[in-house]
Every structure is written in structure tokens, then in C-alpha cells.
Design a protein that fits this description.
alpha+beta, 2 domains, twelve-stranded mixed sheet
């Protein structure tokens, strides 16, 4: 294949991935992961030179090191393709997994966090082919997505009445939403939120890299931070990603002060309006789980989006002994985290 044909195929692939709105499988996300020092492997399964048929697949994998030794290859929200192509891909996964065995350090397993919608039939097929349910997920298995193609009046109508009321309260009290050009205020608020709600954060350098890397206008992914202010006081802030047809709420923070002003409600509403005006057709609230995050889930569901449940995360062991050791340490680590919450 000549260089022009190869470049055209690469363009076709990226355009196809954009249509899926899975930014975690985009070329830009691969470049971001590589900038963090992770190795990547890209696979595309198509036969024609200048097109990408719907019955084929695209998958990007990233290597994650484990704390003591070894590691695993991880495919986030992929592979991209329809259910029929997925079944063909899975049937040959035992042979396909040999692509990862030669890497150094040696992987214990391959983790696939499927982007396909959950069905018992598909889950059964995945398990029968040698996959095991992951001890923990990297991305949320359920989310709530709003259709931004609806008029603003209709978007407000599908919200819970209390949510509409809270938006009005924030407006009445002169809370204003604007884009931040610096990440430092967001990080300060994020640490406050983490301390209050007792959840772990990425290193500050990760958020900083996520913000600056996708500020390049040439990138297909765009990262922005929006804040809700009372005067010059930042009350809430959200980091969002724009990719394909979808705007995704990725990270959020809020102040303990002036909580009665309901700033987070207005913040999300203004982000939705901004995305809609910019031509995006979906707003993904990126994670709901009534057991893990009851308060956050109620908040997100109050906007009236459609609940989506993915298949979730499954591991394909390559080194069976190493994988068993990994699962033991994962369970111990989970119990330790639960114990620390009560200290």
C-alpha cells in the first residue's frame, strides 16, 4: 500500500472512531497515553484499501505496569465495531492475545472494557471464551446521556422539577458560569472535594497534562474547564472533553461554601447549552452507580438523561499464576480501601 493510501485509511479509521464518540479509542488519546510514558498497540481489522466496513473493528491497547512487577494490556471502551464483528473478534481472541505475550515486562492478562451495551447473551459468550470479570473497573459501567438535539425547553422539561428549581436559585443569586484559562483553581477545589468526600485523585500532573495536551486546536479531542462563580469566588468546576458528537463530563469539584446557591446545577446546564451551541448532540455524565456513589448518581439522574449500561470490564489471563496473584492483591487492596474509609 502506498503512503497516500495508508494516510487515507488512517483518516477513515479516525473518522469512524469519531462517529462512535469513544474518545478513549481515538488516535489523540493514544498520543496522550504515550506522553504519559505508556506503550500502545493499535489494531484495525479491515480488508479494503479506502473504506472501513461496519463489520470490522478498531482497538487501541495501553500497557499498565503493576506496582511490584509485570503489568497488563488495557483496551478502554473498545474495540469499536458492531456486535457481529465483536463476536468474530472474540472467537479468535486466544490467538490474537499472542500479540501481547512478547512485550516486556511480561503481561499477566489483557483487560478489555467493552463499549458494547450489556446483554446477558453477550456476557455469557465472553465468559465462555475464557474471559473473567475484572476485580475492578477502570471506567464506569453505567452512565447517563442527554440528547442535546432537543430544544432547550425540552431539555429542561425532562429534568426533575427540583433540578430546574435549583438552576433558578443559582441564577437568582447571581452565580455565573465561565470558562477557566488556568487549571490551578480547579485543582485547588478538586483537592477540597477529595478531602471532604474521601476519594482518591490522580496526581496533579495528570490533570495538568490532560488540560494542556488537548488545548491544541489541531487535536480532535478538546478539554475545557468551566467554573461557576459568585463574584470572583469559584464555587464549582467541571473538566469536560469534547470529541466526535459527544461532550463528556470527566472530573468535577465543588466548594463547601455557599452550597445553598446550587452552583453545580447551573454549571452543568450551562455546559450543556455551550455544547449544544457548538454542534454537539450528546452530553455524557460519565458514571452512575447507586451503590458506589448514591449522592452523585441521584444528582446526575436528576437531569433526565437516558441510562446506558455497558458490558463492563473483563480480563483474559495470559499468565494464569500471575493473574491469580493479581486477583488476591486486588481483593486485599479493596478491603483495605473500605477499612480506611472508617478511620
Amino acid at each position: 500500500m502506498d503512503k497516500d493510501s495508508l494516510k487515507k485509511n488512517e483518516t477513515n479509521i479516525e473518522e469512524w472512531v469519531e462517529k462512535s464518540a469513544s474518545f478513549l479509542q481515538s488516535h489523540d488519546w493514544t498520543l496522550f497515553q504515550e506522553s504519559l510514558g505508556r506503550r500502545s498497540l493499535h489494531f484495525d481489522f479491515f480488508m479494503e484499501k479506502n473504506s472501513l466496513p461496519d463489520d470490522k473493528m478498531v482497538a487501541n491497547f495501553y500497557f499498565y505496569k503493576l506496582p511490584l512487577f509485570g503489568g497488563y494490556w488495557y483496551c478502554p471502551r473498545g474495540p469499536i465495531g458492531n456486535t457481529e464483528a465483536l463476536e468474530i473478534f472474540l472467537k479468535d481472541f486466544s490467538n490474537f492475545s499472542k500479540n501481547f505475550s512478547s512485550s516486556n515486562p511480561k503481561p499477566f492478562f489483557v483487560r478489555v472494557e467493552f463499549c458494547h451495551l450489556h446483554t446477558e447473551e453477550l456476557v455469557s459468550k465472553i465468559k465462555n471464551l475464557g474471559f473473567e470479570k475484572s476485580p475492578h473497573t477502570m471506567q464506569p459501567e453505567k452512565t447517563s446521556i442527554l440528547d442535546l438535539t432537543s430544544p432547550e425547553e425540552d431539555l429542561l422539561k425532562v429534568m426533575q422539577s427540583k433540578t430546574r428549581y435549583n438552576i433558578k436559585i443559582a441564577k437568582k443569586n447571581n452565580v455565573e458560569v465561565r470558562e477557566l484559562d488556568s487549571i490551578e483553581p480547579f485543582l485547588e477545589l478538586l483537592h477540597e472535594t477529595s478531602s471532604r468526600n474521601k476519594f482518591r485523585l490522580h496526581p496533579d500532573t495528570y490533570y495538568g497534562r490532560l488540560f494542556t495536551f488537548f488545548s491544541d486546536p489541531e487535536k480532535s479531542i478538546k478539554t475545557k474547564i468551566f467554573g461557576a462563580f459568585l463574584g470572583n469566588t469559584l464555587l464549582a468546576a467541571d473538566m469536560v472533553i469534547f470529541y466526535g458528537k459527544r461532550t463528556t463530563y470527566l472530573h468535577g469539584a465543588s466548594s463547601s461554601d455557599h452550597r445553598n446557591l446550587m452552583a453545580p446545577y447551573l454549571l452543568h446546564w450551562e455546559i450543556m447549552k455551550n455544547a449544544k451551541k457548538s454542534g454537539f448532540s450528546e452530553y455524557d455524565l460519565w458514571g452512575i452507580d447507586e451503590k458506589k456513589w448514591p449522592g452523585v448518581t441521584r444528582f446526575k439522574e436528576s437531569f433526565g438523561g437516558k441510562e446506558i449500561e455497558y458490558i463492563g470490564s473483563y480480563d483474559f489471563p495470559i499468565n494464569n499464576f500471575g493473574y491469580k496473584i493479581y486477583k488476591i492483591f486486588s481483593r486485599l487492596n479493596l478491603q483495605l480501601k473500605k477499612w480506611l474509609k472508617f478511620i
